[in-house]
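INFO batch 0412 | record 1 of 1 | parsing
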Amino acid sequence: MVLLPSSSFSFTDYYTRLSDSHVLGESIQAFALAKNHTKAHQKNLTLAKIGDIAWLNSATKLAAVDQTVSMQLAAWYLSQNKLTSAEHYLLTAKSLGSTAAISELAVLWHTQERFDKVLNELTNEITLWDEAVANAKVHALVATGQISVLEELLNKLQVTPELAPLYQSTYQTLVDFDVLNTANVQQERGDQPVAREQHCPLSITLAASQLNDLKRWQNLAQTYKGSKLSQFLCVSRIKYIPPFAHDCNLSPQPPIMCDEAKLGSKLSAIGDISSDYLALMLPKGGANVHMGILYLDRADDFTVFSHELTHLLGFIDEYTLSATHPVCQRPSNELGWNIATLPSTALQDGYLSRAVAKQMPWYSEVSQYIENVDERIPLNRPLSPNGFGFFQADTCTSSEKNSAIKPLQQATLLRNHDFAIPEQYLTLLAKDVHKYKMPSYHYNIGVALYREKQGSDALKWLNQAVH
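INFO prediction complete | emitting tokens
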């Protein structure tokens, strides 16, 4: 045996010769990996299954110097929905010169709504962009309200051949949603106030601050066209408004509520919204109607949207409300089309007095069928061929003092989103669509400004309100 001085021996060269000769033993490979030899890790990547511990260990060692490996690691972490790790390796690949990493970061940050990252940490050199980067930049500028910067960007996209198709589709979308503020856009489109159709007495504008939310509104509006409610309440426009989510309470469960005084200033800045009502889409929170403004979580489906629209038209929830809910605080027959409240003591032995029954909004639907009934009207049974009667509702079961009465026994959209609004309710609504409707959204803004002690501004909004 000949012993060679260590100074004349290169393990890397020795490992390379064995590897190239395909005579590499497991012990040599294990030793090389333990010593973090680059070639051993490169070899290991070809042998190990993607995602295995061995593969992850070697990929992690190589990622700092190899953009291809960094991208492979990022792709694996993305597939596992481990976004923090994915972002780390995309940034590593970007620092090593990967243009693909720039595109993937654009998609990731856009999806996460990290618009500051899109605008500040992705290259501004448009020659390095693909459509993913350009699209993320457009969405970020819209979401942050930087419309003048957006218009400058659109001019650049228009003259960049690779991005011109994106410009064409994006520009038209921005025009359709009233995002752009250039004077020639309105001339181009021939903007006119949306005319109210004779068969549609009330109208609503669907508004949002992000393009994806505006497109979501577009889909909901298209579905809504086939709804029976649309004969009473039309979608007049889908419109962009400057960012406002930071002025809202967006906890996952409680109802969404925004600072409507601040909202008023944003609405004033973009000009008149001529509809009766305003619907706002936000990232999260409980859908609800607050007087003339409908708030919707972007994850809510069409049934939730329809449910909230019925509140604008004067229908009350038929599921159990909290004991402190205004509906259950006092007896009233002026709440809405489908709910009246009365003292629980008025419900005697399963009957209702005729005098009380006559006050219910739907009494006319049963009156001819109970002419020969004495003064005690039976509860919880149909009194007309189409099912009208006086049924105890769950609405105020939390209240110790008051009970709620509804017109139909069946479950409806007001009880559960899985059900439709019944034809009987549409019959009631057709009698007088204005009777129990909410005041227009102008009232919200006026009241909010009044509470902020901005009397003159409040008066301007209140004078526009329609009750």
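INFO post-check: The chain is about 45% helix and 10% strand.
INFO record closed
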